[in-house]
Write a structure and sequence with these properties.
Radius of gyration: 26 Å
Distance between the termini: 95 Å
Largest sheet: 5 strands, mixed
Structural class: mainly beta
Strand content: 35-45%
Shape: globular
Helix content: 10-25%
Oligomer: single chain
Bound molecules: copper (II) ion
Number of helices: 3
């Protein structure tokens, strides 16, 4: 008796499958899906650090740009040569003095090593993880780069390119910190910060002059100024944003910027030399 019921059930299932396959919609849908994938709009620009590519849609195109420069007013403090004698290996790695990277004025009157990022205005949007990891190297007994930005949960590759012991010590307050000894040249480690947190201070417990800052964000709209002091945040949806510029010695400034779809807006900040220096 039970066998018969089972058999009947199998036959019904076969019939259902046959109906499903023969139905007019199936084939068409498949083609549509393929087309959708192929014709997906290309992302309209890379974010400041070239990481994630947020998905765009017709109703919420992500192609607005906010860009500008970080001007520097006044005289930068005299670059202080780092005393690397404490570790002869570090000293030997350099033929000429190495200067601190705290306040670095560029030749064009701008400021280097400023983190610039969207602080507010993205609402509840979420953004995919960038495909690439972010790298910090310990090279010549300084951190390269001195300031970097990344997304939460994005892998942070830590390298030691020096033939000496470095002890990289991250000191977040929201995230879990880490403290890793890397005694040999070529050592690698990978770490992540799970939550957005800016800034996170990183230092070396062996070489007290070694210092770096990391900005960790829930989105890909961030970057750090380089030798021309400019920044560009691409691939934004239209909206009103709070843009923040942060410098380790000269503080933070914010500006509110409204940008429409496909629009580019300029915003600039001016940091003044600290009077005490
Ligand atoms: Cu070190």
């Amino acid at each position: 008796m039970q066998k018969k019921i089972a058999l009947a059930a199998s036959v019904s299932l076969l019939l259902l499958l046959a109906v499903g396959c023969g139905g007019g919609g199936g084939g068409g849908e498949k083609t549509q899906t393929t087309q959708k994938t192929e014709s997906a709009p290309a992302t309209t620009g890379e974010p400041a650090t070239g990481g994630a590519q947020p998905a765009a849609s017709a109703s919420d195109p992500m192609n607005a740009v906010i860009r500008g420069t970080i001007a520097f007013e006044g005289t930068a403090p005299k670059g202080e040569a780092i005393k690397m004698e404490a570790d002869p290996v570090c000293k030997q790695l350099h033929g000429s003095p190495v200067y601190t990277q705290e306040v670095v004025a560029n030749a064009n009157g701008t400021l280097r090593w400023v983190m610039v990022y969207v602080k507010d205005g993205l609402g509840g949007r979420t953004f995919p993880m960038p495909a690439d990891s972010v790298t910090i190297d310990q090279q010549g007994c300084v951190y390269d780069p001195h300031v970097l930005t990344m997304m939460a949960k994005q892998p942070l590759r830590i390298l030691n390119s020096d033939p000496t012991l470095h002890n990289i010590h991250a000191m977040p307050t929201v995230n879990q910190g880490f403290n890793i000894g890397m005694p040999t040249k070529g050592m690698k480690q990978t770490k992540t910060f799970k939550e957005p947190e800016t800034p996170i201070h990183i230092k070396c417990d062996v070489h007290k002059w070694m210092s770096s800052y990391v900005g960790v964000f829930s989105h890909p709209f961030h970057g750090v100024t380089g030798e021309d002091g400019s920044f560009e945040i691409k691939g934004l949806p239209a909206g009103t944003y709070t843009i923040e510029a942060w410098h380790e010695k000269l503080g933070a400034q914010t500006a509110s910027v409204t940008v429409g779809a496909s629009e580019t807006k300029e915003v600039s900040f001016t940091f003044k030399a600290a009077s005490a220096s």
